[in-house]
């Protein structure tokens, strides 16, 4: 996948370990969801940086959709690619595609759409702030 503007960005790469398995011997979906959230946040911060906007705290506000396409196995090296979908006033939405390579073939494992909100801390309260820093 390409790294050009508004193209796919490799945000995270993780090897799946035996500790990550469910009772069926495949990787627990919650492990994948956690990594989707982390990868999406890394991708969102990358998009903010690319535009020269001030780096801010972000938090997940929604996983708008998640589709598990095929099981993930112990030993899979799983790549989390992100692509910008949209930027709002205080939010950024990323598409996260999860892939691995098996026997020389790229396999799409999971994909999700995740929305993050930029925050500032004022008087101990976290409140949404403009993503562009204005």
Task: Walk me through the topology.
Elements: E1 9-15, H1 29-50, E2 57-68, E3 77-87, E4 91-102, E5 105-122, E6 125-128
Antiparallel strand pairs: 1-3, 2-5, 3-4, 4-5, 5-6
Please tell me about this protein's structure.
This protein is of the alpha+beta class and 134 residues long. It has one domain (9-128): Thiol Ester Dehydrase, Chain A, CATH 3.10.129. It is 16% helix and 48% strand. It has one helix at 29-50, and strands at residues 9-15, 57-68, 77-87, 91-102, 105-122, 125-128. Strand 3 and strand 4 (91-102) form a beta hairpin. The mean pLDDT is 94.
Please summarize what this structure is:
The protein is an alpha+beta fold and 134 residues long.
């Amino acid at each position: 996948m390409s790294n050009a503007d508004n193209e796919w960005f490799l945000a995270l790469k993780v090897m799946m370990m035996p500790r990550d398995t469910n009772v069926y011997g495949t990787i627990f979906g919650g492990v994948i969801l956690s990594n989707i959230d982390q990868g999406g946040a890394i991708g969102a911060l990358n998009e903010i940086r690319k535009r020269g906007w001030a780096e801010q705290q972000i938090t997940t506000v929604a996983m708008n959709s998640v589709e598990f396409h095929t099981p993930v196995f112990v030993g899979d090296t799983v790549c989390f690619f992100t692509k910008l979908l949209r930027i709002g006033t205080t939010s950024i939405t990323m598409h996260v595609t999860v892939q691995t390579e098996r026997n020389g073939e790229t396999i799409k494992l999971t994909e999700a759409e995740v929305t993050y909100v930029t925050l500032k801390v004022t008087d101990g309260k976290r409140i949404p702030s403009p993503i562009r820093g204005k």
